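Lab notebook, design round three. We kept the backbone fixed and only want residue identities now. Task for the bench partner: fill in a sequence for the structure below.
Input structure tokens:
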């Protein structure tokens, strides 16, 4: 649920660690992130961590998706206040919903 966190820290890493991980800070009231510049046909790990107003970190949530498809592994079970609901990657663009 958006709004319970000051911001989210999102890290996108290619499965082969060929490129530097991309890191993003997303405001706590935002529920998606558009990522561009991904390589078609490879897997990416997306890790989301919520940061509370007091600076406490949530347990990271992780999913894996392959560019050029809508395939992804389901996110692990998470605490009720945070969830990574989707990761859709098409070609070199990605939409991450949380």
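Proposed sequence:
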């Amino acid at each position: 649920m958006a709004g319970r966190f000051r911001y989210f820290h999102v890290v996108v890493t290619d499965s082969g660690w060929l490129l530097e991980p991309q890191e993003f800070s997303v405001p706590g009231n935002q529920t998606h992130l558009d990522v561009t510049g991904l390589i078609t046909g490879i897997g990416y790990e997306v890790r989301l961590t919520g940061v509370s107003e007091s600076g406490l970190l949530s347990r990271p949530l992780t999913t894996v998706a392959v560019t050029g498809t809508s395939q992804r592994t389901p996110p692990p079970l998470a605490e009720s206040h945070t969830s990574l609901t989707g990761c859709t990657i098409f070609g070199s663009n990605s939409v991450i919903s949380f």
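Keep this in mind before ordering anything: DSSP finds no helices and seven strands in the chain.
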